[in-house]
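YM 10:42: Class I SAM-dependent methyltransferase sequence, as discussed on the call
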Amino acid sequence: MSGNSDEATAPGADWDALAASFDDEPDHGLRDADVRRAWAARLASWLPRRPGDVLDLGCGTGSLSLLAAEQGHRVTGVDLSPAMVELARAKLAGRDAVFLAGDAAAPPVGEQRFDAVLVRHVLWTLPDPGRALRHWRQLLRPSGRLVLVEGVWGSVAPVGIPADRLTALLGPLAGQARVERLSDDPSLWGKEVTDERYAVVATYE
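YM 10:58: structure's back
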């Protein structure tokens, strides 16, 4: 359920219909070796150093899930689109990963808790991002972290969530949040970009 690199896709998009071509975007499929390396390095710096349980919400076809699994983590991926979930299962076949069809805002994980919740280009599409963040915080184990990759896309009618708004929403959750600018690293996107793209890593005791 990630947003498109050039023009963010509307929250009501038909993700099942988009699934087959989803990985064509450089930062979705990570087929380019340089783009893949760039995301792997960032992910390694954001996720816990020790292998743990990672919940990838709005996982799409599982490209970030695969990087996390390659770094030793056990991954649970959730996406609203059954077609995306099937592609993710195929991509991570044989790895320590489970993929579920469900709502990223209220993932169907029961009482399971995680060392990290990873969410890329999803929060801005949700009707109540503050509520989603509070729920995701409850899914963390002690010393867990939220890894949120977001941005603002488009110049005529921008969509997305600015970094300052996201950090304000995180404020009541009483963690330590740091913002990492991603716009000026073309290796992540396969090209130069001019819009606002960033990651927030919020850690909790």
